Amino acid sequence: MNQAIPENQLKHGRVTSPASRGAVAIDLGLLGGWQVNEMEGGKNFPALVAGPFPPPYETDSASVAPPADGYILSGGKDDARDCVNFTDAEMSIKLGRPFAWPLLNVTAGQTLQVKWEYTAPHTTRGYRWLITRDGWDPQQRITRAQLEAQPFFEDFYPQVPYYSHAGELKAKVDHEVILPASKKGRHVIVLMWIVANTGNAFYQAFDVDFK
Fold this sequence. Notes:
Layout: E1 13-17, H1 21-27, H2 33-36, E2 40-42, H3 88-95, E3 104-106, E4 111-118, E5 124-131, E6 153-156, E7 174-178, E8 185-195, E9 200-210
């Protein structure tokens, strides 16, 4: 188990409810809270390259390089935080015992309530939600090919340019999303908190089971 990580290293923000993969990793002693708060990577995902944020938000800071396939759920971090990208089999090896990511029971079309805790609430453009394709393979790491090509939901502030509205573009402590109406069984959801005045988003991942 990792040594205790000082709380004064907490950075940025993470979802506290429902439980993310990062929260599970904290409970397992694999990560500290500050590491899960800093799952930070390029905000143009699922694009492959850095560059301007798409219209009508092109006056926002340009995106740095988005996460590579296989490292999406950690925002591209390939240090200890790589564990959130692990398959059940990889986690079982890491822990030395059988393991499966806990599943959040959901229903198709339901409203999912999300609560964030921020330690550095940046000027926010919004939130983007992606989900795995039907027939995705849980025995493989999450790649772009494992995800639906388009986000199933986006919640963006419309005000531009961001620097004229910084006081309005606040990170949301509570927000909600309507889950896709056609999904069944196990899926992975990727939630991005997208920052207007940097090139990054913060990535959170959830394992769900559509009943």
